[in-house]
Specification:
Elements lengths: L5 E6 L3 H4 L7 E10 L2 H12 L12 E3 L27 H6 L4 E4 L5 H10 L2 E4 L5 H5 L2 E8 L8 E15 L6 H16 L1
Parallel strand pairs: 1-2, 2-3, 3-4, 4-5
Antiparallel strand pairs: 2-7, 5-7, 6-7
Length: about 190
C-alpha cells in the first residue's frame, strides 16, 4: 500500500504512458475523455458490425462510463459519477482491440476485459462512486457528440483538468481489487 504513486497524465495517451501505470497508482487526468454507457456501447457495436464509423476515434482515448445529471447554471455538467463498469464488459474487448487505451468506471471487470487490456496495453481506472458532484468540478467542458436521443447516455466529449482516478487493472493484468484483499489479509495476520 505504501508504494502507490501519484501521477499526472494527459489524455489521450499511448502505450508508452500506459505501461508506466501500476495497479494502485493515483492518477490525475487532464485533457479529453469520452463518455459512453450501455446504450451507447450497444450502438457502437452495431456500427462496427455494419462497417460504419464510430462517433470518435478509439485509438489512445479513454472512455468514462458515466451519465451526468443536468448541469446547474454556470456549470458545464451536473453530477458526473461513474457507473458499474461490468455492464460494458461484453462490448469492451472489441473496443480495446481497436485501440481504446483506458476505461473509467467502478467495480470489477470480467476476465475477458482484463485479458484484452493486457493484450492491448490498456488500463482500467476507478473513479469514486458517490462522489459525482465532486468529480464534476474537474470537468471544464461537456459537449454531446453522438446519440443525442439517448439523453444522459449520449456520447459526450469532456475536457477535464486533474480528474482523480485510481489504476485498478494495469497493462500487466495486476488487479487492485485482488491485491488489496491479499494485502489486507497479510496485514491482519501480522497484527494477530
Amino acid at each position: 500500500m505504501g508504494d502507490r504513486k501519484v501521477k499526472h497524465l494527459s489524455v489521450p495517451f499511448g502505450k508508452e504512458e500506459a505501461v508506466k501505470l501500476q495497479a494502485g497508482d493515483y492518477v490525475y487526468l487532464s485533457g479529453i475523455l469520452y463518455t459512453a454507457r450501455d446504450a451507447a456501447h450497444k450502438r457502437m457495436q452495431e456500427a462496427l458490425q455494419e462497417n460504419k464509423e464510430l462517433p470518435f476515434d478509439l485509438r489512445d482515448n479513454v472512455v468514462y462510463y458515466m451519465g451526468p445529471s443536468p448541469a446547474r447554471e454556470g456549470r458545464p455538467i451536473g453530477s458526473a459519477g461513474p457507473t458499474t463498469a461490468s455492464r460494458m464488459d461484453k462490448y469492451t474487448p472489441a473496443l480495446l482491440d481497436l485501440g481504446l487505451r483506458g476505461m473509467i468506471g467502478k467495480g470489477k471487470r470480467s476476465a475477458a476485459v482484463i485479458e484484452a487490456a493486457v493484450r492491448n496495453q490498456a488500463v482500467y481506472f476507478a473513479a469514486v462512486g458517490g462522489a459525482g458532484a465532486l468529480l464534476s468540478r474537474s470537468i471544464v467542458s461537456s459537449e454531446t457528440i453522438a446519440y443525442d436521443d439517448l439523453g444522459t447516455e449520449a456520447v459526450r466529449k469532456l475536457e477535464v483538468r486533474d480528474f482523480p482516478v485510481i489504476v485498478v487493472v494495469d497493462c500487466e493484468g495486476n488487479n487492485l481489487y485482488e491485491t488489496a484483499i491479499l494485502q489486507y489479509a497479510e496485514k491482519n495476520e501480522k497484527s494477530d
